Amino acid sequence: MPSDFTINIHANDPFPSSFRGSSSGIPIRLHMGMYSVTETSLPGYNSTLSDDCSGGIMSVQTKKCIVTNFYSQRVNSTSNNTNAASNIAEIGNKTS
Fold first, then answer.
1. Which pLDDT score, from 0 to 100, does residue 10 have?
2. 5, 22 in Cβ contact below 8 A?
3. ∠ at Cα 27 (20, 88), nearest 5°?
4. Where are the domains of the chain?
5. 58: number of CA atoms within 13 Å, CB side?
6. What pLDDT does 96 receive?
7. Rounded to whole angstroms, what are the CA distances from 40 to 52, 58, 69?
8. Rounded to whole angstroms, how far apart are CA atoms 29 and 17?
9. pTM score > 0.90 for this model?
10. In angstroms, how far is CA 61 from the centroid of its own chain?
11. Nearest to residue 56, comparing CAs of 74, 89, 30, 87?
């Protein structure tokens, strides 16, 4: 489940700076500048991050970061059971 993961925002004064994952999206406010999104990993999971999970953000700009987690558990020697869960962060500027 997406809420099993903790998402961390590294930026200029992000709010919130950390939160439980959500497939419906969590709005993040930060000041313009460079930012990145990371995730606390769980055993057995691999993740991918969309292009908007790091970079620079200017004023009045919004980006969408999607972190997709893949769990693979060996069922037998010839097949894998693979499940995926996605976390979404809506990243935008603070107006202060």
1. 94
2. no
3. 55
4. 2-93
5. 0
6. 44
7. 18, 27, 11
8. 9
9. no
10. 18
11. 30
pLDDT in tens, the chain (96 residues): 788 889 999 999 999 999 988 888 888 889 999 999 999 888 888 888 999 999 999 888 888 898 888 887 655 444 444 455 555 556 655 544
Number of residues assigned to the chain: 96
pLDDT at 80: 43
Q: From CA 31, how far away is CA 15, in angstroms rounded?
A: 10
What are the two backbone dihedrals, phi and then psi, of residue 53, each rounded to the nearest 5 degrees?
-85, 0
Q: Which residues lie across from 49 on neighbouring strands?
A: 67
- Cα distance between residue 69 and residue 64, in whole Å: 16
Residue identified by tokens 């558990």 is 73
